[in-house]
Design a protein that fits this description.
Blueprint (H helix, E strand, L loop, with lengths): L1 H32 L4 H28 L2 H23 L5 E3 L5 E10 L2 E10 L5 E10 L4 H5 L1
Antiparallel strand pairs: 1-2, 2-3, 3-4
Length: about 150
């Protein structure tokens, strides 16, 4: 008999534990279920905040991407640097004007003063002929032995 009563007690305890677990789970889920519709409102508020930040940023990016004068200045700087470096490398100590691309004009002016050579490069837009970029440098205008033998 003791054995049956022990089995009954353990069965009652197991049932009680299962009952408590199911109630605890139900209470846990019922708390989550009490927020009906709140997630939609939260999502809409988050989207509104995100859009209030993204719309001005997109406008700023469009302005920066279409900054035409800055692009022209960078291109003019590249032309001027390239012309100046070529002149130094080739030791081209003569004045010249040329058009690297349609709409662009580059003028190289060389001034010799005893052993010094000043190289000035001006980059213009051909439409208005205003100087966009000006670079100059002063170098020693020595002649190499190879150029003396030729």
């Amino acid at each position: 008999m003791k054995n049956n009563s022990t089995k009954n007690r353990s069965k009652v305890l197991q049932d009680a534990i299962l009952n408590l677990r199911s109630k605890a789970r139900f209470n846990l889920f019922s708390k989550c279920r009490s927020e009906n519709g709140a997630t939609l409102v939260e999502t809409l508020v988050a989207l509104a905040i995100l859009m209030s930040v993204l719309v001005p940023l997109i406008g700023l990016m469009a302005i920066l991407a279409g900054n035409h004068p800055a692009r022209e200045k960078v291109r003019a700087l590249n032309y001027a640097q390239l012309t100046l470096e070529r002149s130094i490398f080739q030791q081209a100590w003569t004045d010249t004007t040329f058009n690297p691309d349609p709409g662009w004009r580059i003028t190289r002016t060389v001034t010799r003063d005893s052993v010094l050579v000043e190289i000035r490069v001006d980059v213009f837009r051909r439409e208005d002929l205003t100087s966009i970029m000006h670079l100059s440098t002063v170098r020693l205008g020595y002649e190499t032995e190879m150029s003396n033998h030729e």
